[in-house]
Amino acid sequence: MQMQGTIPRDFIDQLLARVNLVDVINARVPLKKAGATYKACCPFHQEKTPSFNVNPTKQFYHCFGCGAHGDAISFLVEHDGLSFVEAVEVLAQQVGMTVPRQKLSKQQQKVQQQRIERERDLYDVSHAVAKFYRQQLREHSSSDEAKAYLRQRGLTPEVAKRFIIGFAPPGWSTLVPGLSADVRLTQQLIELGLLVEKSEDKVYDRFRHRIMFPIRNGKGQVIAFGGRVLSEEDKPKYLNSPESPIFHKSDTLYGLYEWRKSRDASGYLIVVEGYMDVVALAQFGVDNAVATLGTAITESHCQILFNQVDTLMFCFDGDRAGLNAAWKALELVLPFIGGQRSVKFLFLAEGEDPDSTVRQLGAQGFFDLVEDALPLSDFWMQSLLTKLSVSTAHPEGRQQLVTLAQPYIMRATALYQYLLLELLAQQVDLPVWRLERQMGLKTGYTPLSQGGRVAKNSVSPRHHNASSSVVKPSMSLAKYLVRILLIKPQWAGQLALVLGNLLQATKNQDARMLLALLKCYQVTPPQQTQLLAEFTDYYASQLQYIEAQPLPDTDEELSPMFENMAIRLADELEKALLKRQVHQGDALDDLQEFLTERKK
Prior knowledge:
Elements: H1 9-18, H2 21-26, E1 32-34, E2 37-40, E3 52-55, E4 60-63, E5 69-70, H3 72-80, H4 84-94, H5 106-139, H6 144-152, H7 157-162, E6 166-168, H8 175-178, H9 183-191, E7 195-199, E8 202-205, E9 210-216, E10 222-229, E11 238-240, H10 256-262, E12 268-272, H11 275-283, E13 289-291, H12 299-308, E14 311-317, H13 320-333, E15 342-348, H14 354-371, E16 374-375, H15 376-386, H16 395-411, H17 414-428, H18 432-439, H19 461-468, H20 477-487, H21 492-505, H22 509-521, H23 525-538, H24 540-546, H25 555-599
Parallel strand pairs: 12-13, 12-14, 14-15
Antiparallel strand pairs: 1-2, 2-3, 3-4, 4-5, 6-9, 7-8, 9-10, 10-11, 15-16
């Protein structure tokens, strides 16, 4: 039984100090020692090259691929789907500690204990109701119509079992006699919204003559139900449980638990509008679909989804209602995009939904549609352009476009905000810095020289001279850029724009070091401090030498030197990449020639 009170902060600190993070993670994800740390392929996103790093000294994990990070408690919360308190209790049990609670008054203890017992009982009741509906699908005399409907939709018994699909029989009162409900159980069924009070002593079933879809939380507990009519004449077509002490629509996604159990390896989630869509897609092997429950997507939904994957695919009907829903999703999701995160939009033919589409096209046909989904930035700009009263060939059209785009750019953050500004700048033929000034923004990513991205021909001879007086052959350009970023982190955004893709493609160790530092600066300050500590620990021996190198004293000298070095390093990396591609091409030509000769 849970103990009373809240868990003191100092106990959390003591627990984390005693827990061996390597043991906790290794029990779930096989780790391999790599110097002073441990590595593995990240359990939170799909990858082939290990970028998940566990530091036993700091008791901290971080993935340089998706940005997942935290301590032993956060790992259990994210990986095992536990609540914070449950994660603390699991870890405490492993190290033989007793979880203390800050003392509550007797009244507070009583209220807390009542809440715990009440919720536990409601979980038990929901589970019993799910079993009852499942049994009715198998045995009730009126279930033939429900079985025929499921067969017609192509659902196999295996999928029906996986989603615990059941049947609510016709009639106004089947739950109470079916569960042999006494007064207390009847009251709990009312609290869950499964029974509706007609008068003080009369109740009736909320769900009647419907296919039933139990809704589960992250731990697999049934918390609510959705019901679909069997006759198209009945209304409403879909009916959900009302909110209850254990069910909150704004932070619940249908199919999320089933997806976690499916071991799907796609690396993204498809957000659809109904639970029948989720089940139909699963029937065809598309296991990575989830659905909101009769409500538009919320910030809580976004946070939950991005805690699981880096890429979201919103799937909507192609009619006006679908476009409106997509636009609302776009507005909501903008602040969440950063780092590896991305969002796409898939619009189906008008009158079609994921269920009908996958049955017509099959799994591969549906995946082909997914491949052609619109990135958020494309959908955003295309939609804005359709709202103009005059084209962007005219000043009035460009003015309108800037005005329409501004609220959405203001919702975006960090580098993504700058990139949307850059896209807008291309449409209205203005430099980014002018749009920043117009909107009162300072993204920190506009090149120091102002007027857009640094061009290779923008560096004057004075810039070359400024850098040549400092740069020595004894240290690479990448290391000099590391040296500068350590004292000028605000310049990281500019450098990421110039070098980002090239750094990702290179195998040069100094350049990889620079890439690691740039990734540290891409996260928000609380996590940034921890990541920088990881960075300095890992590269300690090299940083001692790097930080000893002299630099100009003023920004007037340092800025052109920085830009010049960035351009020169970009040239070096481009040449190295081109050389590698040519070499690979020659090797392929040689192989092709060999195979041709062998066939003769």
